[in-house]
Amino acid sequence: MKKTTLFIFGFLISFGLGFYVNTLVSNKNDNKSEIKQSNNKNNIKKEENMKLGAFSVSLNVKDIQVSKQFYENLGFSVFAGSLEKNYLIMKNENSLIGLFQGMFENNILTFNPGWDENANNIAKFDDVREIQRKLKSKGLKIDPEVDEKTSGPAGFMVTDPDGNVILIDQHR
User: Fold this and answer.
1) Cys-Cys crosslink for 113: which of 53, 81, 98, 134, Cβ 3.0 to 4.6 Å?
2) CB neighbours of residue 33 within 10 Å
3) Most distant CA pair in the chain, distance
4) Whether residue 85 sits in one domain with residue 107
């Protein structure tokens, strides 16, 4: 019993000491990066982030009923879609997961410019064509491309270096 108590006490002291040292090191590094950023602020023009809209993961599922039940067990509920059409959008607070049976091969990261996570229109957003132009100017391969002479709903895909597909899908 005495050995167990000493072991637990030693573990707690080690954990506490490790946490304290980690906090000190983390704060020291944060201060260094703040100094670097403030020094570089005057010399470098910061590029504004693209407004990509709502984010979701679109999952290729084998059995949409089984997947629906699984994600409901995790606290998600059906937000949109149709079992008859083999797709559902599941929501848990701000998190969105699309379940798609037989529609594509791999999982896809999806962004919806112009929408928030509740599919409400956002007043200020970057149009899908503007996002496409920015990505192309950085050398990214877009496939398929959006016709830049059009307006309204459109979408394109880009693939990251590891083969993950990212869909930029504007609905308005």
Assistant:
1) 53
2) 9
3) 78
4) yes
